[in-house]
Amino acid sequence: MEEEKVSCPYCGSTFNDKEQLSKHIDRIHHGSGLLEGDSTKW
Asked: Which positions fall inside the C2H2-type domain (predicted)?
């Protein structure tokens, strides 16, 4: 069974799951704007 990849909306990098994508966005694209998330963390 092939896992579905998720891609970064900012740079197109692909990840195995949304958790890895979220960590990538936090590290690499922090400050680029939020697509979704908990507004209490802004």
From this structure: 6-34
10: nearest Cα among 18, 30, 19: 30
Phi and psi (nearest 5°) for 32? -80, -10
| Burial (Cβ within 10 Å: 0-12, 13-18, ≥19) of residue 25 | buried
Q: How much is the pTM?
A: 0.63
Which amino acid, one-letter code, is at 21?
L
Mind listing the pLDDT tens digit for each residue in 2-41? 668 999 998 999 999 999 999 998 898 877 655 555 545 4
Q: Distance from CA of residue 22 to its chain's centroid?
A: 3
